[in-house]
Structure formats: C-alpha cells, structure tokens
Amino acid sequence: MKYFIILIVVLVLGCMSSTDEVKEQTQIVHSYQEAALNQDFEQIDVLLAEDFILYSPAFADSISKGQVIDQWKSDWENLFESIEYKRTRTVFKVVVEGPYVIDWELSC
After folding, report:
1. pLDDT tens digits, the chain, 108 residues: what are they?
2. Dihedral sign, Cα of residue 18, residue 29, residue 12, residue 44
3. Of 45, 46, 69, 102, which has the fewest beta carbons less than 10 angstroms from its beta carbon?
4. pLDDT given at position 2
C-alpha cells in the first residue's frame, strides 16, 4: 500500500477580517482535503470557485479548476492506491499592503 503526504496550498484572495472568517476558510480547506482523499470530485467542484486558478512558481504550470479536478482523477486512476494524510500544521499569512494583497493558508 502506497502512502502519500499531501501538501495543499490554497490561496484565497481578499482580507480576512475576523476569527470567524479564518475558521470558515480553514473548514473549507479541510473539506477540500477530505474530498481529495476520498475521491469526491463533485465536492471539489463545489468547493473551488469557477474562476479558481492554482498558481505555481512557474506561471506556465498554473492550472484552472477543471484541470485541478482532472489531475486528481488522473492521479487516482494512474498513480495512487491510497493516501494517508496526517495533518500536522496549518499556517496563515495575510498581506494587506503592497502589489500582492493576499490571504493564504498552508496545511501540511
């Protein structure tokens, strides 16, 4: 049985202004992780915005919502037998000034 550790970075644009919003966004990230682990591609579709883009360090490697879902399906069909995910830490970073105003969460 193969085990994989998933590192999911979710970028959420806007400003988190309250603890409730942070909790809500954390729940969305955890729901996404569960959907990915359970091959629930319909739930991934619900959780990601229609204009979602997963940005990577190389702009050419960035992918759309549909491509993310297709990649998960392909990985489950061709690569994964199972995934064991042990959440160890969730980190938030908010940048409110400058050219790149962003909120992000890293769960690893």
Report:
1. 333 333 333 334 344 456 777 788 778 888 998 899 899 999 999 999 999 988 877 767 889 999 999 999 999 999 988 877 776 566 666 777 777 776 666 665
2. negative
3. 46
4. 37
Alpha-carbon distances of 3 from 6, 35, 85, rounded to whole Å: 10, 17, 8
Domains (ranges, CATH) in the chain? 8-107 (3.10.450)
DSSP state, 59? Answer: G
CA 7 from chain center: how many Å? Answer: 8
Overall residue count recorded for the chain in this entry: 108
Residue 32 burial (10 A CB sphere; 0-12, 13-18, 19+): buried
The per-residue pLDDT for 35 is 93
